[in-house]
Amino acid sequence: xxxxxxxxxxxxxxxxxxxxxxxxxxxxxxxxxxxxxxxxxxxxxxxxxxxxxxxxxxxxxxxxxxxxxxxxxxxxxxxxxxxxxxxxxxxxxxxxxxxxxxxxxxxxxxxxxxxxxxxxxxxxxxxxxxxxx
Length: 133
What we know:
The protein is mainly beta. It has a single domain, classed as Immunoglobulin-like. Helices cover 5% and strands 54% of the residues. The chain has 1 helix and 11 strands; from the N terminus they run βββαββββββββ. The chain has one helix at residues 41-46; strands at 4-13, 16-25, 31-34, 47-50, 73-76, 81-93, 96-101, 104-108, 112-120, 123-124, 128-132. A 5-stranded antiparallel beta sheet has the order 1-2-6-7-8, with no helix packed on it. Strands 4, 9, 10 and 11 form a 4-stranded antiparallel beta sheet that branches. A hairpin with a 2-residue loop joins β7 (96-101) and β8 (104-108). The longest helix is centred in the first third of the chain and has 6 residues, at 41-46. The protein starts with a strand and ends with a strand.
């Protein structure tokens, strides 16, 4: 049975955010996981954002980015981890502000606190707070 632990941290970089997601293998065997976000699928399927009251936000436009090689398996040995970095940017479109991940986006507001959570293989990270300035 696949057992993992997920942690995340967030770093603001100008008008962008970097979401550092660590996947720890706590299974008894080496895991082979597709952790690539080349097509936006990882972000689209695993990322959840919550508002300041911890109500889940709906994803905006979901889209796929075409790419030739969609298979990108990552091996994680027992007791080891790997890191995925999900990059975002804030984009304003017709007076609405969006936090844009490759694969999905979320409508956000300035001066608000949001919570990031990633869910993968039935395991969820903690809810990590961050502010949109």
